[in-house]
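U., I forgot to send this yesterday:
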Amino acid sequence: MLNEILAKLPPQAANPGLLIGHETGDDSAVFKINDEQAVVASTDFFMPIVDDPYDYGRIAATNALSDIYAVGGTPIMALAIAAMPMNQMPADMVQQILAGGAQVCADAGVPVAGGHTIDSVEPIYGLAVIGLVHPDQIKRNCEAQEGDDLVLSKALGVGILGAAMNKDELDPEGYRQMVDTATKLNAVGAELAKFSEVHALTDVTGFGLLGHLLEICRGSGFSATVDWNQLPILPAALDYAERGYNTGAAGRNWQSFGHDATLPEGLPEWRKNLLIDPQTSGGLMLSCSPDATDKILGTFKAAGFADATVIGKIQGGEPHVTVTD
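Result:
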């Protein structure tokens, strides 16, 4: 929605240093400093998606850092963004949220150098993150090539599990799976930036798998096919999805871009819901030359992404996603 609003503002003067702006919905802005360095900048924050304040801080920070990794950058500094109901929330709870975020940043080798807080009706936490990338190694979501393989690094289903949690019906194993995947850093994106065979890169977040894949298709001018049976799905999410758990955001996603997707006839509703399930701190999705797929999968596996797999192909044709079963 923000990109749509920005598109209606008066045009800005062209700046040759701005390598990535808002035009294609990429995950971060990138500004070239010199022939060897470009600054990567992004910000992300949201209200709590889990009850545990420390886990909330961890998830929010992991999600914010992912925007830098998703263009091939390496984060070097973060600023905390916090809006808290100070007269209602205990100070130690606020401290736990900030501590969770700081721990993730420490794991990533990123100092939290400061930040800003305000009083708010609802808790909001996240980060503004600065990173670096070589100008020749920037990865965008709009440079897929026909014939590319599509690779997804994390299993889907975070939104489904969150829906169960909101009803106080998520079991401990489901909660563990949700937090484990949502706090796994996408730092491998900086390594993938070195591979010329990786043509397009993004992370899968609020628009779900289909929405972010359509961004790749629209930006690149191609269509894509996805094999439902190859999709990695969190085991607990599969169970809860089959039982009918879903999010309101998934429905809004389908209303927004469902006209550009073709699903198999008779596909059960719960399967469609997983395709459009909003992912908080989801995995990376990329398109790459088929002759480099094994190398890229090996890179993911070495970084601990056991669910990384090929889910489809980039093909010729108008921007569209066709799901097969």
